[in-house]
Amino acid sequence: MSVNRKKLIIEAATKSFSLFGYKATTMDQVAKIANVGKGTIYTFYANKEELFKEIVDNMIVEMEQEADDAINPELTFTENLHLTLYRLLEFRREHQLMIKLFQEEQEIRTPAVLEMVEEIENAIISFIAQKIKIAIQKKYIKDCDPELTAFLLLKMYITLIVDWERIRKPLNKEEIAELFDLYLFKGLSL
Amino acid sequence: MSVNRKKLIIEAATKSFSLFGYKATTMDQVAKIANVGKGTIYTFYANKEELFKEIVDNMIVEMEQEADDAINPELTFTENLHLTLYRLLEFRREHQLMIKLFQEEQEIRTPAVLEMVEEIENAIISFIAQKIKIAIQKKYIKDCDPELTAFLLLKMYITLIVDWERIRKPLNKEEIAELFDLYLFKGLSL
DNA sequence: TTGATGACTGGATTTCTCATTCGGTCAGTT
DNA sequence: AACTGACCGAATGAGAAATCCAGTCATCAA
Question: Which Pfam family, just one, is annotated for this protein (chains A, B) (predicted)?
Fold first, then answer.
């Protein structure tokens, strides 16, 4: 083959979805950026949604890698969990495609986007649940439902970082780590 | 006076807002149900929004009374907190006006409704924060920011009852009480 | 004279119509 | 056989016209 057309398409689509979101990206546009006939895209992907899924799945892999990189074996489980969650939320906050996706989820509610956002949430929860499962096995924490715990941890994290900021003063990284430790690990009881 | 027109208006407005929501309730409709001229409403309330606020504020008072009724002095603080939060969320789930409000908040996003929903949330948080503050004074729980804690407790409760149900099997009252106790009071650490 | 009223107004919203856009196909080209 | 882009029609958007409704105020009844 002369050039890797599939790669060109993926790059073009990533660029376009990140820049304009799902709805505002047209297949003509992707074809043009990729220097490829529109029909060629359909030899690799059945439809726009499948192309989108490929791009999002790539991003999820990238995100999980970043989260893994945040882990430092020198630190305790709690500290690492904090770092991981923080990195995941940072990724959500900084990554162009994520930003566009959440915007589109809120404002336009494109069904394909709602679906993908759900997939991203599930990927995050599975990722955390995996870490929790290991922590239970290694007796770092009490026995509990890993999925439910992961779900709760994430929600609590989002509450501390995003929701609380919306109504009161934002918290810095250290304060969040402290609160996280207080509420979920030490517990409120004396 | 022959009849208490203000009372008639409040009753009519409560009925209409509960049945049709804010947007779909017309001042003509309220006037008709109350058997009152439309202009009369404007002698008591400056505009539709003020009338709405009166109705919502009445509901908040009712809700707080119900939550207080749920408290049983024989039980521990944790158990009572659980009962209170549970009752608050039950009220939210059962009360016709609440249901309509949350629906309208999600689907139509009427600004006046968004504002009122926020006021309701704030009322709930203040209510819980008050209980927390007392619990700290009486040394039932660790020292912590009462507002932030109330906020987190409520969010966590909603997560356990509403959000988790959406993606997995719903939890019953006892399971919630148990999880609530595990996560927030005992903590995950061994 | 005063509290009550409902016809009236105009800005906002909805509905209808027509024009445009874009996902997906396929006949033709290389 | 791989690739292309003109073409199709369903979906969406823009614009105009019709309708709705919050809020006013001239009028009325007591």
Answer: TetR_C_24
pLDDT digits (tens, 9 = 90+) for A62-86: 999 999 999 999 999 989 999 999 9
**Tell me, what DSSP letter sits at residue B162?**
I
- Does B140 lie at the interface with A, CB-CB under 8 angstroms? yes
Tokens in use for B165?
């149900």
pLDDT by residue for chain B (190 residues), tens only, comes to: 457 999 999 999 999 999 999 999 999 999 999 999 999 999 999 999 999 999 999 999 999 999 999 999 999 998 999 999 999 999 999 999 999 999 999 888 899 999 999 999 999 999 999 999 999 999 999 999 999 999 999 999 899 988 999 888 999 989 999 998 899 889 888 7
Q: Rounded CA gap, B103 and A170, in Å?
A: 29
Partners of A155 on chain B (C-beta within 8 Å) are: 155-156, 159, 163
Q: Is A184 on the interface with B (CB under 8 A)?
A: yes
The residues near A189 (Cβ < 8 Å, ≥ 6 apart) are: B78, B141, B142, B185, B186, B187
Check whether residue B28 has its CB closer than 7 Å to nucleic acid strand D: yes
Q: Say how far apart CA B176 and CA A117 lie, in whole Å.
A: 27
**Among A60-74, A132-146, A165-179, whose mean pLDDT is lowest?**
A165-179
- Say whether the CB atom of A39 is under 7 angstroms from strand C: yes
pLDDT of res. B1: 47
Single-letter code of the amino acid located at A63? M
Burial of A4-43, coded b for 16+ CB within 10 Å and e otherwise, reads ebbebbbebbbbbbbeebbeebebebbbebbebeeeebee
Residue type for position B111 = P
All domains in chain B, ordered by first residue: 1-45 (1.10.10.60), 48-186 (1.10.357.10)
Q: Is B70 helix (H, G, I), strand (E, B) or coil?
A: coil
Separation between the CA of A132 and the C1’ of D4 (whole angstroms)? 51
C-alpha B184/C-alpha B149 separation (Å) is: 10
Structural element, H or E, at residue A169: none
B142 and A185 within 8 Å at the Cβ level: the answer is no
Instruction: Quickly list DSSP for A62-82.
Output: HHHHHHHHH--TTS-HHHHHH
Nucleotides of C under 7 A from a protein CB: 3-7, 21-27
